[in-house]
TrEMBL record:
UniProt keyword annotation of Amino-acid biosynthesis present: yes
EC number(s) recorded for this UniProt protein: 2.3.3.21
Matches recorded under InterPro entries: 2-isopropylmalate_synth_dimer (IPR013709), AIPM/Hcit_synth_CS (IPR002034), Aldolase_TIM (IPR013785), Citramal_synthase (IPR005675), LeuA/HCS_post-cat (IPR054691), LeuA_allosteric_dom_sf (IPR036230), PYR_CT (IPR000891)
GO terms under biological process: isoleucine biosynthetic process; L-leucine biosynthetic process
Stated name of the protein: Citramalate synthase
SUPFAM superfamilies, per database record: 2-isopropylmalate synthase LeuA, allosteric (dimerisation) domain, Aldolase
Keywords, comma-separated and alphabetical: Amino-acid biosynthesis, Branched-chain amino acid biosynthesis, Isoleucine biosynthesis, Transferase
Domain Pyruvate carboxyltransferase intervals: 5-267
Phylogenetic placement of the source organism: Bacteria, Bacillati, Bacillota, Bacilli, Bacillales
The keyword Amino-acid biosynthesis appears for this protein: yes
Homology family: Belongs to the alpha-IPM synthase/homocitrate synthase family.
Cited PROSITE patterns: AIPM_HOMOCIT_SYNTH_1, AIPM_HOMOCIT_SYNTH_2, PYR_CT
Pathway noted in the entry: Amino-acid biosynthesis; L-isoleucine biosynthesis; 2-oxobutanoate from pyruvate: step 1/3
Any single Pfam family the record assigns to this protein: HMGL-like
Length: 540
């Protein structure tokens, strides 16, 4: 294995500059603890001289004993014509209590003369004095050369002179920043290689993703001799984001042979990505490399058949190495291998013969032609497989339901649902209100069944999506309803299709409960969705 690559996470500072990203002090503490457990070497907590929230974070994190990471405070060099000890921002870095400080300074002559409005010599003085001041106060000091690649291309002699000033002042790390994100991998490799050969101090890379090549730039920099990567979890950050450490780490460790974290920690990569996304209230793209829900999903029958024989045929790594898992999608493109693999994945032992498997595949294809989609509704698919094997019996059935909507002139619309069920041979008739017809229906069904099955009370509806399948059908078009439910930390999705959105919603809701009761080990589960539903909708 090649040498160690140090990981510097700036999710809590640079990441929060991304549009729509906001983290409370508590959020930042939680993420910092998770990053520390994962094995991140430096955790940048924020800019203590810029806002009270960041200073509050440093005060809180001081009380916590971390296992591995150095908490790092971010700031800038001293201002022009101000001595470093007299600069308030530098003083704030020391007062933060952080053990490391990362300060940025100008390495592009254009920024020195046009943005700072000072001389090239004064900028060099600012860098050297600031680094020396922080080192003199006992902090591990990282100098971040802002706009380094643009500066190097414009005036390489001056860009390197700035780095030399930081090195001579005692910087522990010199980090090369592609601040505008416009440099390409071959340029990064050449410039980093030259720079590493020019310095004795270890070098880091801080790429942004404005050209869509931040991960490639990070890998190129490491191969050229850099030893540290600065980025964020899930690539969040200003504009197009910072480099995504979630992609950088497995590429470095599994493909290039560098050491970033332990093998056990690497297996937490997927959970780390999803944990940060949850706290940041982000929707993770299903196709995110390595950790996305679809990253190891296989749909085509030929692909699945090959993967089941040897995963290397269609997978570039073993998903378990980074905490993800293989998924087989069953759809109109599926073959028998998809179905058998899905049964194995869902841990359903149905012992189906090939003729029965062909019947189920044909049924699935017919259903998908009607508008059903089982890729995103695996709970409904599970129920279908159990039914096909005769292992899902009716414990309760639907007689009828009715939805009443009322709109008064000065009041908002109200919804009431009435449900008639037959449970264990008994007739159950309930009614419930809701903030909409689907919510009222859900409440009425729960009210009818919770007395028989208390576990239903713990089930929550997490998400509800409606899609019109035929836009040309206008208000008479078929709709597909996908419902995501959860209980005790587990989530599952179900589907319903109808020209009536309420009926489609009922079907998906019914499947949600059926799936829960099957998972809870109930002896029999009712087939609500296919029991001859009669729908009545009354508007007042």
């Amino acid at each position: 294995m090649n040498s160690k690559v140090y990981l510097y996470d700036t999710t809590l500072r640079d990441g929060t500059q991304g549009e729509g990203i906001s983290l409370s002090v508590e959020d930042k503490i939680k993420i910092a603890l998770r990053l520390d457990q994962f094995g991140i070497d430096f955790i940048e907590g924020g800019w203590p001289g810029s806002n009270p929230k960041d200073m509050a974070f440093f005060e809180r994190i001081r009380e916590i004993s971390l296992q591995h990471a150095k908490i790092t405070a971010f700031g800038s060099t001293c201002r022009p014509n101000i001595a470093a000890p007299d600069d308030e921002n530098l003083q704030a870095l020391i007062l933060s209590g952080a053990s490391a400080a990362a300060i940025f300074g100008k390495s592009w002559d254009l920024h020195v003369t046009d943005a700072l409005k000072t001389t090239l010599e004064e900028n060099v003085r600012m860098v050297a004095d600031s680094v020396a001041f922080l080192k003199g106060n006992g902090l591990t000091t990282l100098f971040l050369a802002e706009h380094f690649f643009d500066g190097y291309k414009a005036n390489p002699r001056y860009a390197l002179r700035v780095l030399e000033a930081a090195e001579e002042a005692g910087a522990d790390w010199i980090v090369l920043c592609d601040t505008n994100g416009g440099t390409l991998p071959h340029e990064v490799y050449d410039i980093v290689k030259t720079t590493v050969g020019h310095l004795r101090t270890p070098v880091g890379i801080h790429p942004h993703n404005d050209s869509g090549v931040a991960v490639a730039n990070a890998l190129a920099a490491i191969q050229a001799g850099a030893q540290q990567v600065q980025g964020t979890i899930n690539g969040i950050g200003e504009r197009c984001g910072n480099v995504n450490l979630i992609s950088v780490i497995p590429n470095l460790q599994l493909k290039l042979g560098y050491h970033c974290v332990s093998s056990d920690q690497l297996q937490e990569l997927t959970q780390l990505s999803r944990y940060v996304a949850e706290i940041a209230n982000m929707t993770m793209p299903n196709n995110q490399p390595f950790v996305g829900y679809s990253a190891f999903a296989h749909k085509g029958g030929i692909h699945v058949s090959a993967v089941m024989r040897d995963p290397k045929t269609y997978e570039h790594i073993e998903p378990e190495n980074i905490g993800n898992k293989r998924r087989v999608l069953v759809s109109e493109l599926a073959g028998q291998s998809n179905l058998l693999a899905k049964m194995e994945e869902l841990e359903i032992d149905l012992s189906l013969d090939r003729e029965k498997a062909r019947e189920i595949i044909t049924h699935i294809k017919e259903r998908e032609f009607q508008g059903y989609q089982y890729e995103g509704a695996e709970a409904s698919l599970t129920l279908m497989l159990l039914e096909a094997a005769g292992k899902l019996k009716n414990l309760f059935t639907l007689d009828s339901f009715k939805i009443m909507l009322e709109k008064a002139a000065v009041q908002s619309i109200t919804s009431e649902a009435t449900v008639k069920l037959r449970v264990n041979g008994e007739s159950v008739h309930t009614a419930a209100d809701g903030n909409g017809p689907v919510n009222a229906l859900d409440n009425a069904m729960r009210k009818a069944l919770e007395g028989y099955y208390p576990c239903i009370a713990k089930m929550q509806l997490e998400d509800y999506k409606v899609r019109v399948l035929d836009e040309n059908g206008a208000t008479a078009a078929k709709v597909r309803v996908l419902i995501e439910s959860s209980s005790n930390g587990e989530k599952w999705s179900t589907v319903g299709v109808s020209t009536n959105v309420i009926e489609a919603s009922w079907e998906a809701l019914a499947d949600s409960i059926r799936y829960l009761l099957w998972k809870e080990g109930c002896e029999e589960v009712g087939n609500l969705a296919s029991s001859g539903t009669r729908v009545g909708i009354v508007n007042h």
